[in-house]
Backbone:
């Protein structure tokens, strides 16, 4: 049976992941592919709890964060990701388990252990696109969107997150410099994606 492709987007807050997901979806659909887009944390019960805490300025204790985000991802994998892949669709995700390696890793959890836990149930991506821009620049962009900063969006913390992203060496991990214009970044992404077609 044909299995679709799983492409995930990663990067600190404000790197333009959702814009790039939308543009790539359009491109793939023009090529006649069926595409499903989604994001994590989801708007399900467990994802909502993590977002609500961060929005209030006070993150959950890291073990609770890991527990809730794993529950959220399990539901997402079962209800959305695996069914779409089985139907041969492309699945584009705005964040997936590398976010947990980076964010909960930067909060003191063991990065490789987090990866191992996730890979017991979550399909390994065909490709992860890491949108890399300096943290200060990303935070400026996030602020320009007029959103309140949540408890994840602190400079020192995001710099630790970015260092973990920079050290990732999975064979499916790709760094894309994302400091230029939107279409310039999209062109770099498409150049990587054609190797999956
Ligand atoms: P984000 O994609 O920034 O959502 P929004 O822009 O709608 O607020 O996700 C919210 C936060 O969740 C983000 O700062 C990173 C964090 N996060 C983790 O800490 N671990 C995870 O496993 C995931 C998926 C997200």
Residues:
């Amino acid at each position: 049976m044909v299995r679709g492709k799983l492409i995930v987007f990663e990067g600190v807050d404000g790197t333009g992941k959702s814009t790039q997901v939308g543009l790539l979806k359009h491109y793939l659909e023009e090529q006649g592919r069926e595409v499903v887009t989604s994001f994590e944390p989801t708007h399900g019960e467990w994802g909502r709890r993590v977002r609500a805490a961060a929005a209030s300025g006070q993150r959950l204790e890291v073990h609770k964060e890991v527990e809730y985000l794993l529950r959220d991802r399990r539901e997402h994998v079962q209800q959305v990701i695996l069914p779409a892949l089985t139907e041969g669709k492309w699945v584009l995700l705005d964040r997936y388990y590398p976010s947990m390696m980076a964010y909960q890793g930067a909060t003191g959890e063991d990065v490789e252990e987090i990866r191992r836990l996730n890979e017991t149930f979550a399909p390994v991506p065909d490709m992860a696109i890491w949108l890399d821009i300096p943290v200060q620049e990303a935070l400026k962009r996030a602020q320009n969107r007029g959103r309140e900063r949540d408890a994840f969006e602190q400079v020192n913390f995001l710099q630790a997150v970015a260092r973990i992203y920079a050290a990732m060496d999975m064979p499916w991990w790709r760094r894309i410099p994302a400091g230029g214009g939107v279409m310039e970044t999209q062109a770099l992404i498409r150049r990587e994606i054609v190797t999956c077609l």
